[in-house]
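Standup, Tuesday
Yesterday: got the pipeline producing structure tokens again.
Today: sanity-check two examples.
Blockers: none.

Example 1:
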Amino acid sequence: MNILRCFILYLTLWISLPSSAITLSPQAEISILTCAPGTELYSLFGHTAIRVSDPYQKIDAVFNYGTFDFRTPHFYLKYAKGLLLYQLSVTSYENFISSYILDDRSVWSQTLQLDSLTKQQLFDNLLKNQLPENRTYLYNFLFDNCSTRVRDMISESIKSPIEWHIRETDKSFWNLLDEYLCRMPWVKWGIHTILGQSGSRVATPQETLFLPDYLMQGLASATDQGQLLAQPAVTVFKASDTPVFNPWYFSPFFVFSICSVLIVLILQKFTSRKTVKIIAIPLFLTSGLIGMLLLFLGYFTLHPMTAPNYNLIWANPLNFIAAFFFLKKKLPGLVRKYLILYQILLIIGVPSWFFLQPAVPLATLPILCLFIYLSVLLRKRKV
């Protein structure tokens, strides 16, 4: 598409359409684009967009619910608190596909089998949604994202209810996310830690559609009044097969296990109070800071499924305060009582969180064992 055509497309969609909608021709097609996961954190789970193509009207545009503006005031603070507004943007199909080819990410297309009236209704809804006063929305990673917005836009534009023939599974949100995180074990551990026990809830069939791949699978079998809603998926671009190498010795469980064993061996060999303090203080400070982050995300933001979080037991914000008392020559009685309670909670938590009701990542088990050991040592050696 040349520069003149791009200009006409943007001029038409952003100026003319809101006030007087364009009537699509019988040759118009509306399709759902599903993009494979990328390597960046924001693209780990793929992407979904809607393409509207009409050769008669010279329209070939992609409506994209996955954009945000870095120029937003207090961008990072709003992002951290779950208050960042995403928006519906429009770009040319050529530019959209080119960006995914450049990133070497596969793209699939499913043409919706809609009558002319429904196509027009869906197109009009997209144009209305693209108006400045309507285009922004409060993004929710699990329940209101680029994939769920596309699903809902289709459902709202079709008069009869869509029948989603989605097979029920026992997959939790943890399980669903893990399908994409296996190639990034440290990110997996971090997301599991942030989600906590809430992420172990089994997702309903409709809830699984927050993932673009699952929406693509759902569209493949969805029906409208007994007729398939979408044609079979067509590969628009096939990415190269790049093997992912994640050595087991770089996994969180192995790293935490080795570090914990080394620390125990050091403390067995060097039994002075100074050695215990040198090791305990930074560990308790770090766990306390992690706890503050989890507390903030769980109770002071709008991020989904971040509370309750049992990781706050081992990563207790009070650890940060306790660490400063380790500098004293004699440990205060209140801190000793706290360490006893902390140790008891960790001992109870090991069988509960890992074997009865998953609430803490398995890779965290060595950390819990280490903190149990340190709690005993700190009281026993009267530091």
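Example 2:
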Amino acid sequence: MELLARYLHLIGAITWLGGMTFMLLALRPVATAQLPPPARLPLLAGVLARFLPIAWISVALLAASGAYMLGAAGMKNAPVGWHMMMGIGILMFAILGHLHFGPARRLQQAVAQANWPQASGQMAKIHPLVVINFALGWLAIAAMLFLR
């Protein structure tokens, strides 16, 4: 069961971080450079709407598998890095929730109304949240690896 929990944890982490990597380092820069707002914003909003449920599934996998592994090891016996990873993960979860229920919803509404200035404003709020979660995700991995 422990091996399955580790496997599911890796699937969740790789999927979430991989999706953020693609959006931050590939899709957004190319879309920004090559597409005007009426083409770019619906594309980015559509990709985000498609990715957010995947991110939530990843969070569920991370939370369930992490809780199982922490419970199996015991809180007192778990390495410091695991505790740091859990704290960072809770923060990432809160940021994802804010992003999803705040600017991402307003982005979808603005795009549906073809209100490009408002949609651009919401994208400007979403981008730093994704950058923060991206950095926190790598920090969580580093904590788990180096703080044993």
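Quick observation on example 2: The radius of gyration is 17 Å. The chain has a mean pLDDT of 97.
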